[in-house]
UniProtKB/TrEMBL annotation, chain A:
Annotated NCBIfam families: oligo_HPY
Family: Belongs to the ABC transporter superfamily.
SMART domains: AAA
Biological processes annotated in GO: peptide transport; transmembrane transport
Superkingdom assignment: Bacteria
Entry's Gene Ontology molecular function annotations: ATP binding; ATP hydrolysis activity
Sequence segments annotated as region (Disordered): 1-20, 357-391
Comp. bias intervals (Acidic residues): 380-391
Domain ABC transporter: 27-279
Upper taxonomic lineage: Bacteria, Bacillati, Actinomycetota, Actinomycetes, Micrococcales
Protein name, entry field: Peptide/nickel transport system ATP-binding protein
Matching PANTHER family: D,D-DIPEPTIDE TRANSPORT ATP-BINDING PROTEIN DDPF-RELATED (PTHR43776:SF7), TRANSPORT ATP-BINDING PROTEIN (PTHR43776)
Classification via SUPFAM superfamilies: P-loop containing nucleoside triphosphate hydrolases (SSF52540)
Species this protein is from: Marihabitans asiaticum
Keywords attached to this entry: ATP-binding, Nucleotide-binding, Transport
TrEMBL record, chain B:
CDD domains: ABC_NikE_OppD_transporters (cd03257)
Organism: Marihabitans asiaticum
Record keywords: ATP-binding, Cell membrane, Membrane, Nucleotide-binding, Transport
Protein name, per record: Peptide/nickel transport system ATP-binding protein
Subcellular location: Cell membrane
NCBIfam families reported in the protein's UniProt record: oligo_HPY
């Protein structure tokens, strides 16, 4: 590898790279859709339906902020994160990163651009190659992006990385299995940091960890952001964790963002019925709160993303559902101004104002059995299964 | 939707005789070429009918091994279980495998963490529920079917007739967990052990399942052992909370005093590690430093000492004893808030 080519890069690695102003839009997602085809057939694949994993998401992440994406499993939050990094081919829509469209990039250009976009995964054991030492894990990315020529030249940077994430320098020669879960997640974070990225997408970074270790990793992420001016997209299902680390929070339900606002505002004034239900369902480690609070118990399960309900995706489980509009008109994410909220509170609900003012009261919801599309049931041979006698 | 407000004044089950009484339960795993590993070390607690007792701790604290030992589900070889587990005065540890098989499912039910791997993938849900009734109640499959249907309905599975014929993979995660609960409750056991029953579920589904468990305990007067790492779940569900660390009980108390005024530094550390939904979000979390790998052996010190913010010299030299005062049990030389420390160290029982 030619040293001349690597010189400007190693300057960048020391943190000298010029970065745009804090607060400007770094990632701009417009109407992003990711649909996975469901294929059936023995010889010829026939597309019998689609899983609408991400279905029309608009999202802006500003430089230096932490955007938290919450939602339950199956809501498409991980797919959205991966689609932003172009790890998942998007069906429609655009992702603009720092003024450059990622959707149009391919091949070598995309590979180079990836240096600015790194990811921290949920399962630290599954995302670290068990046969590579920590040193080789960390050097790999730097070599690929031409930041360093060989492991020796990388040594000062490696030591810096390890001390940044709170691991001893002796860790370099060890292998992933020799570490505890929390330490492995630190290695994963160090690997993401090694190429000096601008954006880190962290998909459930702490959900596999014990409570006490979870807090250590959350603090570490906050420290690193301050030191390196990183931008985070944190994907998690734990609402308390997201509230703690995020500046802004988006709530996802069945492929779409239903509510978005500043973290403090969203948790103080949840406007969307789903957000309200979600927040009321989180167990709080305080017996007094647990004894007195009102829980909104949603009936049923998340409908299948292969056959999302018409109109508002949440109308099948929504206690505030109205006769008109909810069933057939999909609400757009819109700015709402209600007393007590900041000016940037967006919500996708036709009746957000009326619900907030108490004009519309919740009512009981009939449990609906979710059903797959008919073609899909046929393709899976469901009616055959129904014929199997029970006894 | 149902809006529920849990009753503030719950019935106090403490007056009743204990249904299950665990005394000095110790589980040791033999390891080839290494010292034996003591997973559970001298654990004692009681569970009364209608009472929910929580076992809380992080991975490796011995909470799941405790439940397996009570159920007699540990493998026959490679481990030793000592102490006693008395159900109605009958020591479960002395029973034969056959006798235990008769008890499991009828007197003691168990709900596991991962419903998909606890259900048989090639047998319809309905048959898995009727199987329990056939085995323990001597019912025919035909007569058990309406009971199974009723159970599925009771745990809130919509359209139970269709679900009876379906296989586990056709159900959603929450529905599978409900089916598992239906199986555990089919014979109306007096004792129910739930090992992380909601960990694999989403919060809205978790809320449904917890509400269901709460209802069942009240309705059927079942004694429930709730094993979890989630302090929020404990705060809402358990009457009495046992905090375990490194296989030993470090603190026990009723949920209100325990959460408001934790005495053991580990309990306090756990509570301050959890980000909250209220208060200042920008406030830094106070994690417990280090990890379980730093533990000292209990035999000559306090295992938690290396991670403890309150550790004093004595913690590394002596084993603290579990001292009871009222309903509280505490194993610490230098507790939070400066309570009087126990005077003598525990005698080595073995």
């Amino acid at each position: 590898m030619s040293t001349a080519a690597t010189e400007p890069a190693s300057d960048r690695a020391k943190g000298d790279r010029t970065r745009g102003d804090k607060g400007e839009v770094l990632v701009d997602v417009q109407d992003l859709k990711v649909h996975f085809p469901i294929k059936r057939g023995i010889i010829f694949d026939k597309v019998v339906g689609h899983v609408y994993a991400v279905d029309g998401v608009d999202l802006q992440i500003r430089r230096g902020e932490t955007y938290g994406l919450v939602g339950e499993s199956g809501c498409g939050k991980s797919t959205l994160g991966r689609a932003i990094l172009h790890l998942e081919e998007s069906t429609e829509g655009t992702v603009t990163f720092d003024g450059q469209s990622l959707t149009d990039l391919g091949g070598e250009d995309l590979r180079k651009r990836r240096r600015d976009l790194q990811m921290v995964f949920q399962d630290p054991m599954g995302s670290l190659d068990p046969r590579q030492s920590v040193e080789s894990l960390l050097v790999e990315g730097m070599k690929a992006h031409g930041i360093v020529g060989d492991a020796e030249a990388a040594m000062p940077r490696l030591k810096q990385l390890l001390s940044d994430v709170g691991l001893p320098a002796a860790a370099l020669k060890k292998y992933p299995h020799e570490f505890s879960g929390g330490q492995r997640q630190r290695i994963g974070i160090a690997r993401a940091l090694s190429v000096d990225p601008e954006l880190i997408v962290a998909d459930e970074p702490v959900s596999a960890l014990d409570v006490s270790v979870q807090a250590q990793v959350i603090n570490l992420l906050a420290d690193l952001q301050e030191e390196y001016g990183l931008t985070y997209l944190v994907i998690a299902h734990d609402l308390a964790v997201v509230r703690h680390i995020s500046d802004r929070v988006g709530v996802m339900y069945l492929g779409g963002i239903v509510e978005e606002s500043d973290a403090a505002d969203l948790y103080a004034n949840p406007l969307h019925p789903y957000t309200r239900a979600l927040l009321s369902a989180v167990p709080v480690p305080d017996p007094d709160v647990e004894d007195t609070r009102e829980q909104i118990l949603l009936s049923g399960d998340l409908p299948s993303p292969a056959n999302p309900p018409s109109g508002c995706r949440f109308h099948t489980r929504c206690p505030w559902r109205q006769e008109s509009r909810c069933d057939d008109e999909r609400p757009q994410l819109r700015l709402v101004e209600i007393d007590g909220t900041t000016g940037s509170h967006k919500v996708a609900c036709h009746y957000a104002e009326q619900i907030a003012s108490g004009e519309i009261q919740p009512h009981d919801v009939e449990t609906q059995t979710e059903d797959k599309p008919k073609e899909l049931r046929e393709a899976e041979g469901d009616e055959v299964a129904d014929d199997i006698p029970f006894t | 939707m149902t809006t529920t407000t849990p009753e503030t004044a719950r019935r106090d089950p403490r007056g009743a005789e204990p249904l299950l009484s665990v005394r000095d339960l110790t589980v040791t795993f033999k390891r080839q070429g290494e010292d034996p590993f003591v997973a559970v070390d001298g654990l004692s607690f009681d569970v009364r009918p209608g009472q929910t007792v929580g076992l809380v701790g992080e991975s490796g604290c011995g909470k799941s091994v405790t439940s397996l030992a009570i159920m007699g589900l540990l493998p026959d070889r490679g481990n030793t279980v000592t102490g006693s587990v008395e159900l109605d005065g009958r020591d479960l540890l002395t029973l034969s495998n056959k006798q235990m098989r008769d008890l499991r499912g009828s007197d003691i039910g168990m709900i596991f963490q991962d419903p998909l791997s606890s259900l048989n993938p090639v047998v319809p849900i309905g048959r898995q529920v009727t199987e329990v009734l056939e085995r323990h109640k001597g019912m025919s499959r035909k007569s058990a079917k309406p009971v199974a249907r009723e159970m599925l309905h009771k745990v809130g599975i919509p359209d139970p007739d269709r679900r009876l014929t379906e296989y586990p993979h056709q159900l959603s995660g929450g529905m599978r967990q409900r089916a598992l609960i239906a199986m555990a409750l089919a014979c109306e056991p007096r004792m129910l052990i739930a090992d992380e029953p909601t960990t694999a579920l989403d919060v809205t589904i978790q809320a449904q399942i917890l509400a269901l468990l709460r209802e069942l305990v009240e309705e059927m007067d079942t004694a429930l052992i709730m094993i979890t790492h989630d302090l929020g779940v404990v705060a809402g569900l358990c009457d009495e909370v046992n905090v375990l660390y490194g296989g030993r009980l470090v603190e026990r108390g009723d949920r209100h005093p325990l959460f408001h005024d934790p005495h053991h530094p580990y309990t306090g550390g756990l509570l301050s590690s959890v980000p909250s939904l209220e208060g200042d979000a920008a406030e830094r979390l106070n994690p417990v430093p280090g990890s379980v790998a730093d533990n000292l052996p209990w035999t000559s010190s306090c295992a938690f000492a290396p991670r403890c913010s309150n550790a004093i010299e004595r913690c590394r030299e002596e084993t603290p004893a579990a001292v009871a005062s009222g309903d509280r049990v505490l194993r610490c030389f230098n507790p939070l808030g400066g309570q009087a420390s126990p005077a003598e160290s525990e005698e080595d029982r073995r």
